[in-house]
UniProtKB/TrEMBL annotation:
A GO CC annotation given for this chain: cytosol
Top-level taxon: Bacteria
Keywords for the protein's UniProt record, in alphabetical order: Amino-acid biosynthesis, Histidine biosynthesis, Hydrolase, Methionine biosynthesis, Multifunctional enzyme, NADP, One-carbon metabolism, Oxidoreductase, Purine biosynthesis
Entry keyword Chaperone: no
InterPro entries, per the entry: Aminoacid_DH-like_N_sf, NAD(P)-bd_dom_sf, THF_DH/CycHdrlase, THF_DH/CycHdrlase_cat_dom, THF_DH/CycHdrlase_CS, THF_DH/CycHdrlase_NAD-bd_dom
UniProt-recorded name of the protein: Bifunctional protein FolD
PROSITE patterns for this protein: THF_DHG_CYH_1, THF_DHG_CYH_2
Stored Gene3D superfamilies: Leucine Dehydrogenase, chain A, domain 1, NAD(P)-binding Rossmann-like Domain
An individual GO BP term: L-histidine biosynthetic process
GO MF term list: methenyltetrahydrofolate cyclohydrolase activity; methylenetetrahydrofolate dehydrogenase (NADP+) activity
Reactions catalysed, as given in the entry: (6R)-5,10-methenyltetrahydrofolate + H2O = (6R)-10-formyltetrahydrofolate + H(+); (6R)-5,10-methylene-5,6,7,8-tetrahydrofolate + NADP(+) = (6R)-5,10-methenyltetrahydrofolate + NADPH
Length: 296
């Protein structure tokens, strides 16, 4: 079998189009959603993401507020900024780019964000709501994965899902969403015994590990859907001296020969993450004003 390649870039563009249309309707009611992105330090990869978030926010008709702070910013100063953004009526969504420098306790900062403006869905209130099945702001990467799965498959009830990775930002919320879709969910991690055998049970296999090319074709059940969340920068001497490229956690060639459908890296889950950030900003803007949650 040769897998269908899931075009995350196209799906994200289509989602942004729908968001833009809804933002246009809100504008007639005098509402313009606003997203504040906070970047501490000069991590070059983070700078690229923050720039593309800001650009796409504006293209969707929303307001973008960028806050760039020096790498030696104190925890207290960052908490003060979050406090001001919480109080700012023009700001509907707040994203503090991770990772944060060592002198700052990230947990404390994420908990300081007003849960109604928590467009990353990382606040414990939103994590708790997701776990209990209550309406919440859902982390962007798992939300993007779920949208791709629904596009592909419609009803997911009864399917076997295996999520490799148990982080609070990807693995755990992904498993919670798949559970809510009535999948039978297994969460695998670094202590899992015989990971290849666990993965071979999966109709839906999500890799969120951070290890380039770890999942190989012999781990994949024929016809399965493989979602590759991994973003790993590796050296690429074939592109020239000192060049790098990004690869996923999935060995694309061997897995595509077995899977039914597979996301590439780049162009798979990554673009959906950013589009879902815009979707969450729109959702937050509506919910905060007592307007119905947009159906995107
Ligand atoms: N596409 C996108 O939009 C996004 C991509 N990412 C990417 O996704 C990947 C995962 O991110 P994140 O969840 O933050 O990473 P974390 O490092 O927080 O979590 C990694 C998880 O993988 C598990 N793991 C590590 N090694 C193995 C192994 N050998 N076998 C099985 N499991 C293993 C860890 O297990 P344990 O808990 O036991 O340590 C952990 O649960 C990264 O490549 C990251 O860059 C992240 C966010 C967004
Ligand atoms: N508070 C916070 N929220 C996040 O959501 C968050 C974060 N911090 N820190 C870093 C990770 C990583 N992340 C990505 C988003 C988009 C792509 C993406 O669009 N990737 C493109 C291209 C990437 C490239 O070419 O470099 C692709 O996969 O096609 C990747 C990774 C969000 N994260």
């Amino acid at each position: 079998m040769t897998a269908a390649i899931i075009d995350g870039k196209a799906a994200a563009a289509a989602l942004r189009q729908r968001i833009g249309a809804r933002v246009g309707e809100l504008a007639k009611q005098g509402v313009t959603p606003g997203l504040a992105v906070v970047l501490v330090g000069e991590n070059p990869a983070s700078q690229v993401y923050v720039r593309s978030k800001a650009k796409q926010t504006v293209e969707a008709g929303m307001r973008s507020f960028e806050h760039k702070l020096p790498a030696d910013t104190s925890e207290q100063d960052l908490l003060a900024l979050v406090g001001r953004l919480n109080a700012d009526e023009a700001v509907d969504g707040i994203l503090v780019q991770l990772p944060l420098p060592a002198q700052i306790n990230a947990e404390l900062v994420l908990e300081a964000i007003d849960p109604r403006k928590d467009v990353d869905g990382f606040h414990p209130v939103n994590a708790g709501r997701l776990a209990s099945g209550a309406p919440s702001l859902v982390p962007c990467t798992p939300l993007g994965c779920l949208m791709l799965l629904r596009d592909l498959k419609g009803d997911l009830a009864g399917l076997e899902a295996v999520v490799i990775g148990r982080s609070n930002i990807v693995g755990k919320p992904m498993a919670a969403l798949l559970t809510a879709e009535s999948c039978t969910v297994t969460i695998a991690h670094s202590k899992t015994r015989d990971l290849p055998a666990v993965c071979r049970r999966a109709d839906i296999l999500v890799a969120a590990v951070g290890r380039p090319g770890m999942v190989t074709g012999d781990w994949v059940k024929p016809g399965a859907i493989v979602l590759d969340v991994g973003i790993n920068r590796v050296s690429a001497p074939e592109l020239g001296e000192g060049k790098t490229r990004i690869v996923g956690d999935v060995d694309f060639a061997s897995c595509a020969a077995v899977a039914g459908a597979i996301t590439p890296v780049p162009g798979g889950v990554g673009p959906m993450t950013i589009a879902c950030l815009l979707a969450n900003t729109l959702t937050a803007a509506c919910m905060r004003r007592g307007l119905p949650k947009p159906v995107l």
